[in-house]
Amino acid sequence: MPAYRIRTATPEDADAARAVMLDTVYHDFGSGYVPRWHGDIIDIEAAYLTPVRHTLLVAVAEGAEGAEGMEGAEVVATAALDSRGPAHPPNPRWLAERYPSGETAHLRRVYVRPDHRRQGLARALVRELLEFAVADGGYRSVYLHTDPAVTGAEPFWRSLGKVVCDEREPAEGVPGVPAGTVHFEIPMTW
């Protein structure tokens, strides 16, 4: 079993982090790359590495066979935070108003490669994202959304926060809203 290290991503990690993210949207979500939902995956530097109030963390398995990037290390998990609240549309107006951009730490791309799941990586990554949000000083809430059809996603997020909106049925008249999106608020500290 490899040893894991969590750290802030660098530009040199972008390709490996992108691979984790794209593998997740293709294999776990089954949606594949959808530009309006996944544009940040393509331009990781502009989305997470350049803006001061945003961050991307990676979990690196050290001593992993077939490792990419650094010698003997492989990026096996990602987790990001940005200051963009949920947009309306496609999300309900009240949700966008409750979690405005600039004041909301939006957790994104908390993905772990299948062979490295059940090791506490996602929880450790989220804890570090929350520490980042608290240290920033300008965030008043932490928000995320998930697809409950993804194995383990909903129970994981329920263990960390509370559901604020459960859209198990598609929003009528709002194109592009994934059926079943569940929106969560996570306490800043836990």
Structure summary:
With 190 residues, the chain is α+β, with helices and mostly antiparallel strands.
Question: Can you give a write-up of this model?
Answer:
The protein has helices spanning 14-28, 35-42, 44-49, 93-98, 121-136, 153-160; strands at residues 3-8, 55-62, 73-82, 104-112, 141-146, 162-167, 181-186. The protein is built from 6 helices and 7 strands, in the order βαααββαβαβαββ. 31% of the residues lie in helices and 27% in strands. It has 190 residues and is α+β, with helices and mostly antiparallel strands.
Query: Order of strands across the biggest sheet?
Result: 1-2-3-4-5-7-6
Number of strands: 7
Low-confidence stretches: 66-70
> What amount of the residues lies in strands?
25-35%
Q: Level of helix content?
A: 25-40%
Helix/strand-derived class?
alpha+beta
**Which sequence of SSEs, written as H and E, runs from N to C?**
EHHHEEHEHEHEE
Mean pLDDT equals: 91
